[in-house]
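User: Before I run my own analysis I want an independent prediction to cross-check against. Here's the chain; please return only the structure tokens and, at the end, one sentence I can use as a sanity check.
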Amino acid sequence: MRHAMEQSDWPAAIAIAEPWMQAGHADWRISLNLAIAYSRSRTGGAERPLRLAKDALHQSARHPQACLGLAEILTTAGQWEATLCLLDELPTPQPWLARQLRCEALARLGHHSTALALLEDVPQEQMSWRWHLAVADVYSQNCEWSQVEAHLHAALSEHPQQPEAHVNMALALLSQQRCEEAWPHYEWRPSNPRLNALGIPRALPSLDTLAEHEVVIVGEQGIGDQLMVSRYLPHMAARCPRLRIQPAPRLRTLLARHLPAGVAIEDPDTPLGNAEVIGSASLPWLFWKELRLATSDGSAFLTPDSERIAHWNHTLNQLPKGRRLGVGWLGGTSGTELRERSLSERDLRDLSSWHEVQWIDLQYIPHPYQELAGIAVQAGMHRLGNPGEDLEDSLALIYCLDGVVTTRQTVAHLAGALGKKGQVLVPARPEWRYWGPGNRWAWYPSLELLHQEIRGQWGRQLSQAAQRWRAASN
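Assistant: Structure tokens:
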């Protein structure tokens, strides 16, 4: 397992540790490494890495290594205050990772100057590419892009094949809408199926050469990301003799109905054969010079099923009179994302107080977290069935509504793909997908972006959304 951890081969580390622990063995170091492998690979859910790391901390009598490991997982989980408290337990001098984690937590809590001061206190001889990455991260939390780029260039100058530096450079450039510069760096993302054994991306084929190949598009990243780039799939189908798509399972039915006949929709583990394999997140770069956003006029590129529309119209007509608005109130898979992309119960109650509005809860709740399904209902909203479980159903329901107010997540992408009006609540932390002229979302111009000013506080943005809908009703 040690070799797998040193090689950052998280699946291999998990495959070694899981059966060992299931056989009844116990060692806090193995538990801690398994927790770290889960966290870095984003597998095992949000709670399991935390539980394993906390068990390791207890079993080790709060060993410094266990403290450091748990601090890393707490940072990923968005529990930055707990990270800082735990790091205070470590003896001095603290290792580099402790300083890095402290600065990450401070920056995400808005203490940018304190984080930069800690990093500037590092001796000159220790200011390696890792140091430049840490400084760039702090500056990125405050959207200081020139400083971000300078430090990432320095990191890449020292370590030209450092994946994290490339990906962070892509995100910085994309956040500034400098897409053509960004796409080559974005190929270094860890989900790209074209990475070789060393983590280096193979060059993308040109569109012209695809006429000679069978192509497999492998879905990567989240449901919303795959929806966003699905606008390019019909164009890809027109370029190659045979196109196969391996999307997230929940997208299979939806995409199958919208793609040209002859496009094969497959399970993710279907053998690739000799096909040209392309990650779905590479589609924008492939088509950027020719199509740009592909739907910049705001036109819809998804249409709902007519029978499902009839069903939802009938269901909605049974509700009290009033404007019918949908809400998506959770977002992301990691603790950090959930913390920054979610509405509180108080926020939901504030929405429910809007005059003559019937709120429809559109939030997908995975099966392990069904206890969350009642939160919006308790706030006074309607929850019809199990939203998001069947995306075809969700698409038709959103189509039947007057509009949406949502955090950045799948609901926003579904509404935008329909050309539905509404507002998307964008966290203070920079996010490259959410930009556009005049606060209109460039990828989905029917939707307005309301940018958070103070982390964790949505009051001003919800008031702005209320003003928009009041104006629309006059």
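Sanity check: Strands lie at 214-218, 242-246, 264-265, 276-279, 323-328, 357-361, 403-407, 422-426, 447-451.
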